[in-house]
Amino acid sequence: MSNDILRLGKETLVYGTSTVVARLLNFCLVPFYTYYLATADYGIVASVFALVALLNVVFLFGMDQSYLRFASEAQNKREVFQHCFYGLLGYGLLLSLLMFFGAKPLTLLAGIGTQNVRLIYLAIAILFLDMLNMIPFTKLRLQRRAWYFAGVRTLSIVVNVAGNVLFIAVFKMGVESIFWANIFGSLASLLALSPVVWQELKGGVCRFNPVLQKQMLKFAWPFVPAGLASLLVSVIDKPILVQLVGLSEVGIYQANFKIGVFMMLIVSMFDQAWRPFFLSHAKDKDAKNLFASVLTFFTAFALWVLLGLCLLMPDIIQSNIFGSFHLIAPKYWGGLKVIPLVIIGYFFYGLYINFMVGPVITKRTRVLMWITLGGAVTSISVNLLLVPHIGILGAGCAVACSYAVMAACLFTFTQKVYPMPYQYGKLLSLGLLALLTGACVWYGAGHLRFVHLLGLKIVLLCFYPLAAWLIIRNTKFKMISAK
After folding, report:
1. pLDDT in tens, 81-115
2. Which residue has the higher pLDDT, 285 or 9?
3. Cα Rg for the chain, rounded, in angstroms?
4. What three-state secondary structure class fits 321?
């Protein structure tokens, strides 16, 4: 079991190489945007990309998950690939055409005004290219070709970042620069993945298999409403904020929301390796014990990252480490209190990903739709309840609450259909350790100077890994019994 967990850790690290590079390079654009774009312009970008995120789920139609599920068992994997790829190609062309003629209504839906209709046209190109990239990427994940995956992702992001800098700082193309940079990044990715696609298509077109297509679509379609509902949790706040507080506040919120990328890094790294991992070990004799141990290790590490980001990131942002230059321009600092809430939300999303093992292995994926719809309803409700009173801080609360609801619901379902022997004692001990760390900092904030408080934070963050390891190892030092 320990070797399996180590292998998962290594694959997570490799996938994480590309994810970390991608997210960090994207994060480097945040200060760049805050210094080159007005808060309202950043709000426009956030609103359009929120719409892109939702439509990306519609374009993909859950076929990446369907390919992962069916290709892992099929003898003729080439047949599965072609049914996914060609099906998405025709479907994507149809959707792109419909969006082109419906571009002006989409500007109203995004809250950016019809004068920005050109941004919708560019968004269509991004959606179509990203859709073509997804099935080859999924094949690499299934084959555990993690380094190839990492290299292509890194190439795409480097092209994207370079394009942003060139188009914004040199060519002065304004908001459109961000969209053109994304298009070139997706094109670079598709070119790098062309050998993967050609390998599956070069032998000619496989005979159409209506039974296979029906089974794949039946498995895939629940991921569409589930994916839409899941994304609503993280993007519905943008259109609500546009209507209640305006584009400028959306820009401030988005800049601080992006800080949560560091927690999302951990979740994304884990997710890329986790799904192929649990599918390949689902039939093992000790599979459930293995999956339970994974949750414990994930929780320990994710809580450490959560504490580090929540305790240190606001100080780093406002510090004068780089002289007059700050990580985020001072005009965006009004949203700093949002950061801990977003990070906590992403932690709960990481737990949700862990609990995904139940519905996927039992093929009862429809429940994901209802669970994520519950998360979306929670997000909308909390936003509408709190934003009018506390502004963008209410949107941050909505992110944390909705992901917590989703994790709790999926945990309950998984324990019914695929009961897991989770190590509740260790998990509770780790949670209490994190709360105790936070409580010490909160107490110190009212009694210590900034320098001394910063020292306390660093000491506690250094102590946490040792304490967490002792809890996991079940030594004599334990807050609660392991089981």
Report:
1. 888 899 899 999 999 999 999 999 999 888 888 89
2. 285
3. 23
4. coil
Q: Which of 78, 130, 70 is nearest to 363 (CA)?
A: 70
Residue 315 sits in which domain range?
Answer: 2-422
Integer Cα distance of 16 and 7 in angstroms: 14
Residues 393, 474, single domain; the answer is no
Percentage of residues in the chain having pLDDT higher than 90: 42
pLDDT band of 14, cuts 50, 70, 90: low
Q: Which residues pair with 322 in a beta bridge?
A: 325
Q: 372: which 2 tokens?
A: 């994520």
Q: Is the pLDDT of residue 24 over 80?
A: no
CB contact at 8 A, 242 and 235: no
Which structure tokens are listed for 205?
């077109």
The per-residue pLDDT for 480 is 36
Whole-number percent of the chain with pLDDT over 70: 91
Q: HSE of 105 in the Cβ direction (CA atoms, 13 Å)? A: 5
Residue 190 dihedral angles phi and psi, to the nearest 5°: -65, -40
Side chain identity, residue 227: G
| Mean per-residue pLDDT, 257-274 | 81
Residues 172 and 165: their CA atoms lie apart, in Å, by 10
The pTM of this model reads: 0.72
- What's the first-to-final CA gap in the chain, in angstroms? 18
405 shares a domain with 344? yes
d(CA 44, CA 50): 10
Tokens of 371: 């669970």
Residue 418, helix vs strand vs coil? coil
Q: Which two tokens stand for residue 36?
A: 């080159």
Residues in Cβ contact with 226 at an 8 Å cutoff, skipping those fewer than 6 apart: 365, 368, 369, 371, 372, 373
Q: Are residues 328 and 472 in the same domain?
A: no
Q: Is residue 449 left, alpha or beta, with left meaning phi > 0 and alpha meaning psi from -120 to 50?
A: beta
In the prediction, which pLDDT does 332 show?
Answer: 86
Residue whose C-alpha is closest to residue 252's, from 327, 332, 326, 314: 332
Q: Are 392 and 253 in contact (CB under 8 A)?
A: yes
The last residue of a domain, from among 373, 388, 422: 422
> Look-up: residue for tokens 């709360």?
435
Average pLDDT for 136-149: 83
Same domain membership, residue 243 and residue 340 = yes
Compute CA 218 distance to the chain's CA centroid, rounded to the nearest angstrom: 25
Write phi, then psi, for 213 (nearest 5 degrees). Answer: -60, -40
Helix (H, G, I), strand (E, B) or coil at 325: strand
On whether the CB atoms of residues 59 and 92 are closer than 8 A, the answer is yes
Whether residues 370 and 480 fall in one domain: no
For all residues of the chain together, what is the average pLDDT?
86
Q: For residue 325, what are the β-bridge partners?
A: 322
Q: Are residues 242 and 337 in the same domain?
A: yes
